[in-house]
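User: I'm putting together a small comparison set for a docking exercise, and I want a reference complex before I start. The sequence is below, and the ligand is flavin-adenine dinucleotide. Could you produce the 3D structure with the ligand included, as structure tokens?
Assistant: Of course. I'll restate your input first, then give the structure tokens for the complex.
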Amino acid sequence: MTTHTERTGLLVISGGIGGMGTALAAARSGQPVRLLERAPAFTEIDAGLQVGPNAVRVLTKLGLYERVEDIAVFPERGVLMDALTGTYLTSLDLGPAFRKRYQAQYAVLHRSDLLDILLDACRASDLIVLENGKAVTHVHQLHGGIVRVECADGSAYEADAVIGADGLNSRVRRLLSDDEPVCSGYAAYRGTMPVGAIGTSADGDSVVLWIGPGIHMIQYPIRRGELYNTVAVFRSDAFQRGEEDWGGPGELDARFATACDDVRRGVALVNRGHHVKTYDREPLGRWTTSRVALLGDAAHPMLQYLGQGACQTLEDAEALGRGFAEHGDDNAEVFAAYEQERVPRASQCQTTARNWGEIWHTDGVGRILRNHILTSHADDDYTHTDWLYLPAAI
Ligand SMILES: Cc1cc2nc3c(=O)[nH]c(=O)nc-3n(C[C@H](O)[C@H](O)[C@H](O)COP(=O)(O)OP(=O)(O)OC[C@H]3O[C@@H](n4cnc5c(N)ncnc54)[C@H](O)[C@@H]3O)c2cc1C
């Protein structure tokens, strides 16, 4: 039962990285924003996040670079290793040449550090109202263009426009599509540890990725180098067999049993009590109506293999902020321009991420050929990153 209906202007649903980034970008363009988050507090999980230069440029434009610089790590290289043999395959130089080319650094951060930076900036803005404990249950477009948003606590809002940044299982997306998330059949375990507890195997200057048949592990330092982040990911045989209960720690151990010593040592660092089953969706051609827009994982959830889900979310936020600066509160114009600009790029990330996953996890002849090609790649060859990192609109 609705207890109270409030009239509002621009309403952002979600207090995640996408929701906060969007509220900030809109406010910096002069738009008052109300943000609704279902959780009782604004939090992120205990894990690291790779933030490519495309998203570091967005954070810089939002005026947050100094805070990022204070807490992030800027690795000198990305290193690719074979997870079974422990052999070095190739690396990408993330140093001065990379920074000059992409006009920004490659950053790695603790997720909650990034969320805190965004949250502090939102709280400092007179144009942003943040509300917790607001689980949105229904979104309707009413005649006359108003969007009605109802929450589980009985409150309701009638908004001029709504941005749905409510993640993979977005409620707002149901206005535009009846599609479902696609399960990859892979499970991810994550963990952060004080660097001192890891010993000599922690590489403080690199993002290290180990790839193998149906498995990979990624490690990098975060929080000024004080913590070391590990993510171990594997294809579940139990999922392939159609079992409901899949991805548990027993499978984690079994899948990594044949990995090299360094990888098995890394897998021992993850939190075995929690894992995520990874999903994406097929690209969606339409993210907006004249009053409603999807953003971030709500619009374009992707597998994590490009390290771009959150980065594309920040690009979305920047594009919307630019739209508000150009078109004021003409939401239909803002959303149409946003959709035209963002759908092709984010869709390309969704499909490319799937392809990278295939390449990383391949076996047999594919793996031999892949390793051969990778070992001849020069570390200052940016051919395969230009499309993603070169400045375009921003
Ligand atoms: C293993 C793994 C590793 C990854 N690594 C990287 C990486 O290195 N770099 C990168 O860029 N990306 C990475 N990603 C992807 C990244 O985590 C996501 O793309 C990003 O978090 C999406 O942000 P978002 O704000 O769109 O959605 P979310 O983070 O899902 O936030 C959605 C928010 O909406 C709220 N919400 C949901 N429903 C409602 C509702 N009904 N009412 C109100 N509030 C609601 C939620 O509580 C949440 O706060 C990774 C993903 C995984 C699984």
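The first strand starts at residue 4 and ends at 13. The chain has a mean pLDDT of 96.
User: Thanks, that's exactly what I needed.
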